[in-house]
């Protein structure tokens, strides 16, 4: 198997925001079995193009900050929030109903959305040659051994090994906890998988670097081993990341959105969006000043 399992949404499914029972069953099965599934044709690509133009410009601003940029493990992989304003915050991208249909089927009805950001693989420069991340899990804390959080990734362009498609280790969401990891929670390099475990796993089930077309969504178990890979092209590669937590999971993070989005967000009935609403000026001043990935707390309160 050289690619993860794919479900192709029909035009009708995308328009209605709902997979058929057969496709939903396949998606749920693959998330349980592999820890990841790709849903193609789930997002309007014209909307992605507009957002990508803005986020590529923002990524270059973040990179210009050097050692003070919100990088994850190495400067070639930046944590980058999208602009949380009405012009760019479209439901099919950030609150995709097909994604929520899948996460609700696995986690329970009306999961919580408390995290919305992105990972930008930057083109190499003389100061920042191509580097890969260590293989790691985002669940770098004591966590349940059953599904509790699913990441919804939305690439803004076609992604491939050339522009830094994420290396994924299918099936590693089951059977491994923090005892398999190195680095303390909250450090830049936390969640790294121990080398002997990687070597053993690679012999039986080596990792993949998939090709994923624009318009797709990827649903990934938060526990799955993965690694950001070098972008060897001259173009920035942005991939959004939203996290849906089970309705019973007591994560305390909140989004910060422009207040003009409140009526729209409040009208969403299938997803519990935990957000604070501030003026557009405030949110535009702050959204590029967030932390790096491992500084966020994906754990839950007692």
From TrEMBL:
Q: Known InterPro entries for this protein? A: Fungal_Metabolite_Diox, Phytyl_CoA_dOase-like
Listed name of the protein: Phytanoyl-CoA dioxygenase
Origin species, per record, is Cladophialophora chaetospira
Show the taxonomic lineage.
Eukaryota, Fungi, Dikarya, Ascomycota, Pezizomycotina
């Amino acid at each position: 198997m050289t690619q993860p399992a794919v479900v192709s949404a029909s035009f009708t499914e995308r328009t209605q925001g709902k997979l058929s029972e057969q496709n939903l069953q396949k998606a749920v099965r693959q998330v349980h079995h592999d820890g990841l599934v790709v849903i193609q044709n789930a997002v309007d690509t014209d909307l992605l193009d507009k957002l990508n133009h803005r986020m590529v410009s923002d990524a270059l601003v973040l990179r210009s900050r050097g050692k003070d940029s919100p990088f994850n493990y190495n400067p070639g992989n930046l944590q980058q929030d999208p602009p949380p304003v009405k012009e760019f915050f479209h439901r099919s991208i950030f609150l995709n109903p097909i994604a929520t249909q899948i996460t609700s089927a696995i986690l329970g009805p009306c999961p919580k959305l408390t995290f919305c950001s992105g990972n930008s693989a930057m083109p190499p420069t003389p100061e920042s040659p191509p580097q890969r991340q260590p293989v790691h899990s985002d669940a770098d804390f004591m966590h349940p051994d059953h599904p509790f959080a699913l990441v919804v990734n939305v690439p803004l362009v076609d992604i491939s090994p050339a522009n830094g498609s994420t290396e994924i280790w299918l099936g590693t969401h089951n059977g491994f906890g923090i005892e398999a990891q190195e680095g303390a929670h909250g450090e830049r390099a936390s969640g790294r998988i121990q080398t002997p475990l990687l070597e053993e796993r690679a012999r039986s089930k080596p990792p993949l670097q998939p090709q994923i077309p624009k318009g797709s969504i990827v649903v990934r178990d938060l526990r799955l081993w993965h690694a950001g890979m070098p972008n060897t092209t001259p173009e920035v590669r942005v991939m959004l990341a939203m996290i849906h937590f089970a309705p019973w999971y007591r994560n305390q993070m909140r989004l910060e959105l422009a207040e003009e989005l409140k009526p729209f967000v409040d009208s969403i009935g299938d997803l519990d969006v935990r957000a604070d609403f501030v003026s557009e000026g405030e949110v535009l001043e702050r959204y590029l000043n967030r932390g790096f990935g491992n500084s966020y707390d994906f754990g839950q309160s007692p």
